[in-house]
Structures are given as structure tokens and as C-alpha cells.
Amino acid sequence: MATVPPLDPYISKPKVYLVGRQQVANDELARFLADEGMVFSTDAPAGGEALAEIAGRVCYMSFGKGRKSNREYLDNILTSKHGSVLEHAVWCVLITGVSRALTHELVRHRAGFGYSQLSQRYVDESDARYVVPPLYQENPELREKWQQTIETLRTAYTELAEATVQYVQQKHPEMSPRDRRKWARQAARSILPNATETKIFVTGNSRAWRHFLELRGSVHADTEIRLLAVEVYRLFKKESPNIFQDIELVDEPDGMPSVHVTHSKV
Ligand SMILES: Cc1cc2nc3c(=O)[nH]c(=O)nc-3n(C[C@H](O)[C@H](O)[C@H](O)COP(=O)(O)OP(=O)(O)OC[C@H]3O[C@@H](n4cnc5c(N)ncnc54)[C@H](O)[C@@H]3O)c2cc1C
To answer: For a designed S-S bond to 257, which of 30, 161, 223, 249 qualifies (C-beta 3.0 to 4.6 A apart)?
Structure first.
């Protein structure tokens, strides 16, 4: 049987998986168009883009009229800041290899996002992986200092969690082993560092994703979340070239790219 190589306990960049996208229910759209006596087709490359166009065209019942391509249609939406139309295009993204510090910033984005994150109460973090801040990736001396601290904390967490399980067992013999572990972990996790790796499933509409890219892809953002924004941008640019048509990467003097949004806060 093939053995799986152990994972590197240290992570240098996030991974982003675009795990959910929409599709148009063409039969129902055709039924609507027939009922209204209209003809319409779109060249949108993504289901979400088609849905945003359909939603926008309902506003003026402009099916089969006006701008021809989905790109032109959405360009007008972006230029006129008719941003609510973009809320109909939704993508689900699974993010791994990011720190708890990063997700603390990520979940501050409330409007248009839903989150499901790995639980440090249910999951044992004794074998947790840790995200190396970009600055420590370029300096071996600081990296060594950082890594020693992390390993000290890893040992401390494991010992504390084990001791806490024993204590809870004595204090609450009526509890199931599962609940005892949960109680122990919820106390012991208080000493886990911000660098602890986490995984988070994020569903967001494209108006919200655009706002995230603008704020977190900026040179003013923390470098780890900026790296994430760049990865998310790359996925979305490929997936939905029309909704993200005005967004580009720019090489910055600090050696990292930033995300540049032409139509700010649509
Ligand atoms: C570089 C940088 C530094 C930061 N530093 C700090 C810091 O030191 N401390 C700190 O606490 N936070 C900090 N933040 C977080 C920041 O204050 C926001 O909480 C975060 O960026 C989420 O963005 P948002 O407020 O636009 O909310 P989102 O949820 O992304 O909302 C998008 C937009 O919807 C509208 N909206 C959302 N909710 C409401 C509402 N309740 N009422 C009215 N309109 C709403 C707003 O127009 C908002 O811009 C920082 C962010 C950045 C990018």
C-alpha cells in the first residue's frame, strides 16, 4: 500500500479551491421568456455572470435589446455602479493554509459572505500546521526564532490539553469522552498562536468578493491576506472574466503584487 508522505508542518502560501459555482436553469428561463414573448441568449462564460445579466435585464425588461455581449452588459453595470445586480452571482471557495490571524480579518467582511471554519473545540491541534508570515520566510535568523517559539507552544498545548482532559474526567465523570475532549480543547486552545493554520469555507456574492479584493489586495493590507487576495483574484479572473474585467494585478515596489480595482466599491 502506498504511504502518504507527512505534511510539512510549516506553510508558506495559501491554497484556494473554487468548489462551488452556479448554473442557469435553462428550462425555467425559457419558460419565463416564452410567457413574456421574448427571445434572449447570452455568451456569458460563467453561470453567475449569466444570472447577473438576467437579473439586471429584468429591471428594464430589456431581454434581446441593447448591449449585445455579457461583457458589455456587465461593463455598464460596473460603470454605473448598479452593484446589487452582482449579488446574484455567487461562488463558494475553500481556503486552506491560512492563519487564524488571517481569518480573524477575513470574517470582518460581513455583507454578502457566509463562513464555515474548522473548530478548535472539536479538532485536536496537537499536530496543527503553522503559517510562516511572509517577512520571516525571507530572513533565516528571524524564521528560526519564530519556529522555536512555535514548537515550544506546540508542546505546551499538547501537554496542557492532556492534563486538562484528566482534570475534566475527574470533575465530570458523567460526561461522554467526546464532551470531555471538547471541554479540554476549548480551554487549551487559548494558548494557540495566531499563526495556527485553519481552513475556512467561504460563500460570497461577487459584489462582496470584489470589495474583499479591493480592501485586502491593497498594499495597505496585511501581507498574508494580500497574498490570499491575489490567489482569489487569479481564480476569479479565470472563472468570471466579465464580472472581474476591471480588476488587474500590479507589481509593487515592495516586491509583491497588489490588486487594482478600477470601479471601486460598486
Ligand atoms: C488595511 C486595513 C486595516 C484595518 N485595520 C483595522 C483595525 O485596526 N481594527 C479593526 O477593528 N478593523 C480593521 N480593519 C477592518 C475594517 O474596519 C473592516 O471591518 C473590514 O475591512 C470589513 O470591511 P467593511 O466594513 O467594508 O465590511 P463588509 O462586511 O465587507 O461590507 C461591505 C460594505 O457593505 C456596507 N456595510 C456592511 N455592513 C454594514 C452595516 N452594518 N451598516 C452599513 N453598511 C454596511 C459598507 O458599505 C461596507 O463597506 C482593517 C481593514 C483593512 C483593509
So the answer is: 249
Which residue intervals of 65-205 are DSSP H helices? Answer: 70-79, 100-106, 134-137, 140-171, 177-188
Confidence of residue 15 (pLDDT cuts 50, 70, 90): very high
Question: Ligand 1: which of 115, 215, 228 to mutate, judged by most atoms within 8 Å of the beta carbon?
Answer: 215
* Residues of the domain holding 151: 134-191
Which residue is listed with cell 453561470?
47
96 with 211, same domain: the answer is yes
Query: 111 alpha carbon to ligand 1 midpoint, in Å?
Result: 9
Return mean pLDDT, the chain: 96
Same domain, 73 and 100: no
> Does residue 101 share a domain with residue 78?
no
pTM of the model: 0.96
The answer as to whether 228 is a domain residue is yes
Nine-digit cell string for 173 = 465523570
Considering the domain architecture, whether residues 201 and 114 belong to the same structural domain is answered as yes
221 lines ligand 1 (CB under 6 A): yes
Q: What is the DSSP letter of 196?
A: B
Q: For residue range 221-256, list pLDDT tens digits in order.
A: 999 999 999 999 999 999 999 999 999 999 999 999
